[in-house]
Amino acid sequence: MSLKKYVAALAACSMLYFAAAVKAQEKLADGKTYAIEYSKPEKKPENNKFKLGGSFNSAIATDYVVKAGFVASKGPVIQNNLNLDVSNIFSNKDKLTLTYWSSYGLDGRKSNGQEVGGHELQETDLDIFYNFKISDSFSARISYQRWMFHFGPFSGKGIDVIEPGIHYSGIVEADVFADLAFRRKWIKSGQMYYGELSKPLKIIGSEKFFDITLTPRISAAYLNHYFQEQSSWAHITPGISANLSRGPFSIEAFAKKQFGFDTKIDKKYSGVSVNFNF
C-alpha cells in the first residue's frame, strides 16, 4: 500500500471512529450503561430589555380621608389613578413609575371648615417612583411627589414631598414609609411616618373564573408638625377589603374604621374601585 493510500485510509478510519464514539454507549464494570454526550456551550443570558406597562384605577369613596388621618372632604368623591411603568432599567429587579392622581368632589359639604363647590376638582398629584428589589421578600422605593390643591384652605397652593419606603412580602404584607414635606411659607414643613400590615387570604382561585381575595389590614400614622403646629400620634385604623380579579381586570371594595389619637378624628369610610392593568 502506498503512503498516500495509507494516510487516506487512516484518516477515514479516524473519522468513522470519532463519529461512532459520539453515539456509542459504553458498558462499565458496574453493569450500567452510559451515553457519551457532547453538550453545546451555554449561551450567555441576554441583556435585560425595557418593559413598558401600567394601570388605571378609578375609585368612588364615601369621603376623602388622607393617610395622615385628616378628613380632607366629607361626602362622596371620585379618585382616579394612572400609572405608567418602565421595568428592567438597570436590572430585572427595578421599575420606574410615573403617576397622575386626582380627587373630584361630588357634593358641596364643608371641607376643613370651608364650603366647597358641589362638583369640584379637589386635588391633583404628579409623582415619580423608583422601586427596586432587595431580596425575594424585601423591596424599597423612593419617590418625588407634587401635590396641588384646588379647594379648601390650601386652594391654589402646592407642596413637594419626598417619600422613601420599604415593603415586606412574606407571612404578612408590611409597608412602611415617610412623607417628608418641603418647607413652605404657608406650612412649617413636617413629616408623616406611616405603616400598614395586611394579610391577603385567597378565598377562591380559578383560572377559568374569578379569583377572590379577602385582605384584613391595620394601619397607623405619626405626624411631626405635618400640616399642623404640634406633633402627634394621628390614628390607628383597622380595615378589610375584598378583591375580585380575572386577568388584567379587578374590582375591590373596602371599609375602614379610623380611631383618632391626639387628632381625635374618628371616622368610618368605605369605597369601591375598578382597576385595569396593561
Terminal-residue CA separation: 76 Å
The fraction of residues in strands falls at: over 45%
Class per helix and strand makeup? mainly beta
* Total individual domains: 2
What does the overall shape look like?
Answer: globular
Oligomeric state as shown? single chain
Regions with little confidence, pLDDT below 50 for 5+ residues: 21-38
Folded structure, characterized:
The protein is 8% helix and 60% strand. The longest helix is centred in the first third of the chain and has 21 residues, at 3-23. It contains one helix and 17 strands. The relative contact order is 0.12. The model is unreliable at 21-38 (pLDDT under 50). The protein has two domains: 3-35; 51-277, Outer membrane protein (Lipocalin). It is mostly beta strands and 278 residues long. The protein has a twelve-stranded antiparallel β-barrel. It has a two-stranded antiparallel sheet with strand order 1-2.
